[in-house]
Amino acid sequence: MSEKRVCVQCGKQFVLSDSEVSFYQSKNLSLPKRCKTCREMNKAKKTNQSVGYKNYTVKRHVNNRKSFAFKIIIIAAAFLAAIFNLEFIPNSSAVIVCVASLSAILFLWLYGRSIYIEEFDTTPYKYTFYDTNSMVSHYVKHGEQVSCESMEDYLLKANLVILNPSALKRIQKDGDTAYFCPKTGEFVVVAKAGYIRTYFKADMRYFNKQ
Length: 210
Fold this sequence. Notes:
alpha+beta
């Protein structure tokens, strides 16, 4: 009595169990056209809208500490180099050194620019991080790697990996659960306590080591 169907949203095949088919038929309801993952994602979005979600105007200012450290080092090196070269070599060479140093500073300044995090409601999501600081730090570190334009997108995609029926699942030695999607390389770890530890891209070898 179980039935195989193709999700109209993601195009993947899914199976409705006997009990699910019986339930929908007993309620005179049409069988789902979407897989469980897409249904849960849509439900989360609807819940998000029902609580009046808005992009808050208040933003958290997060500095990339590594980039900031590079800036300080380069500025100090450029300053010392400029002083040294201005005193001991011709002015033309000193100008070249200064221009090169300033270009490096500008590059690092743009590359290591600050990131602004928009606040959002996390209650619609089944899984979230331990606290805001943890979520922000992991988003800053891995957000671009997993092609996320916002921290909410980062949390949503992590949830989709966990809820993806085709994702590989592995219980780690410490009791945490690792999820891995071979096609996309997405890797999520959920702590034994039920919160997300991290989300980034890895490979099968890394997943098997965990």
